[in-house]
Automatic annotation (TrEMBL):
Residues bound to substrate: 134, 237
Gene3D superfamilies reported for this sequence: 3.40.50.11190, Glycogen Phosphorylase B (3.40.50.2000)
Lineage: Bacteria, Pseudomonadati, Thermodesulfobacteriota, Desulfobacteria, Desulfobacterales
NADP listed as a keyword: no
Record-given protein name: UDP-2,4-diacetamido-2,4,6-trideoxy-beta-L-altropyranose hydrolase
Domain Glycosyl transferase family 28 C-terminal: 155-302
Native source organism of the sequence: Desulfatibacillum alkenivorans DSM 16219
Coiled-coil zones: none
UniProt cross-references to NCBIfam families, sorted A to Z: PseG (TIGR03590)
A Pfam family annotated for this UniProt entry: Glyco_tran_28_C
MF (Gene Ontology): hexosyltransferase activity; hydrolase activity
Keywords for the protein's UniProt record, in alphabetical order: Hydrolase
Length: 321
């Protein structure tokens, strides 16, 4: 849902933004007050490309922003051939060729050599300075996070769906606590299929609160001393907010992100979810609660990575073209 941040930045500079998509995001986008156009064709198919192009033409759209693994080189070329300026977000060099005006890869591991096969005029925007954060995080980098006297507030956010129920493992880790006065807020999205098991586990977990479909992420991150998180796009919100992270890799495309954040000192990478136990998580939590000076260093390292203004920065470049 990072393109919400791009849409908000576009509108903040006087433009109008609408979404075209299929499936689950429709309700969430509507909640954000952004117009949504449903695409009925098979996602990523050439029928999808033609339907999308027709929609863009009917709306007299100047730009199309594509974010998803299914937007192939052929899909991009069809839009470009019809005179539609195109921005492609690509985290992992997913296309054999890039037919785009702009390609954005907001990750620390992004390198120009990943995108050699592209149009001559394609501009590359690489690194977290171009990460799309929603407007609630645009002021985050200005926030001076005070080192906690005693780290006690933990945010657990392991993806909106969390199909493997890693959140349950994190709750069980927190329940190993016997000596710390800690509080934890556990986030679960609308599409999480494990709510019943999470609620059952929390019946004997004082100080641990389950929050469904949170709408105030910036506020929750400001409340927390550190987080147990997946290494997806949420990590850039955490970095801009100066929120240290204990990262668990839930998908292949998160491996490099977790490793880079660990290397920069902004987080602790616990690795692939299957190898992470409740004891691993609790041991790391306990370490951070005992050594708050490390939390302060991690916080500063995160804010040095991104200032939260990547969406605005990208829109300014789009408007120049």
């Amino acid at each position: 849902m990072r393109c919400i941040g791009l849409a908000q930045a576009w509108e903040s500079l006087g433009g109008k933004a609408e979404f075209a998509c299929t499936g689950a995001p429709l309700a969430r986008l509507a909640e954000e007050g952004l117009p949504v156009n449903a695409i009925r064709s098979l996602r990523g198919s050439m029928d999808d490309a033609h339907e999308t192009a027709a929609l863009l033409k009917s709306k007299q759209a100047v730009w199309a922003a594509l974010d998803g693994y299914h937007f192939t080189a052929d899909f991009q070329k069809l839009l470009m051939d019809q005179g539609i300026k195109t921005l492609v977000v690509d985290d992992n060099q997913d296309c054999r060729f890039y037919h785009a005006n702009i390609v954005v890869n907001p990750n620390l591991h992004a390198k120009e050599k990943m995108f050699r096969d592209r149009e001559v005029h394609t501009r590359l925007l690489l690194g977290p300075e171009y990460a799309f954060l929603r407007k609630e995080f645009w002021e985050s980098s200005k926030m001076q996070r005070r080192p906690p006297q005693k780290a006690a507030n933990i945010l657990i956010t392991l993806g909106g769906a969390d199909p493997h129920n890693t959140t349950l493992k994190a709750i069980r880790a927190v329940k190993l606590n016997t000596g710390f006065n800690l509080h934890a807020k556990v986030l679960a999205g609308q599409s999480n299929p494990h709510i019943q098991s999470l609620e059952e586990e929390l019946k004997d977990a004082p100080g641990v609160e389950l929050i469904r479909d949170a709408k105030n992420m910036a506020e929750l991150m400001a409340w927390a001393d550190f987080a147990v998180s997946a290494a997806g796009s949420t990590c850039w919100e955490m970095a801009a907010s100066g929120l240290p992270g204990i990262y668990i890799v839930l998908a292949d495309n998160q491996k490099n992100i977790a490793a880079e954040l660990h290397g920069r000192g902004a987080g602790i990478n616990l690795g692939w979810r299957a190898g992470v136990t409740k004891f691993t998580i609790w041991g790391t939590i306990k370490h951070l609660m005992e050594f708050k000076d490390r939390l302060e260093r991690m916080s500063k390292a995160g804010q040095a990575i991104t200032d939260g203004l990547g969406a605005k920065r990208t829109v300014n470049i789009m408007m120049e073209q």
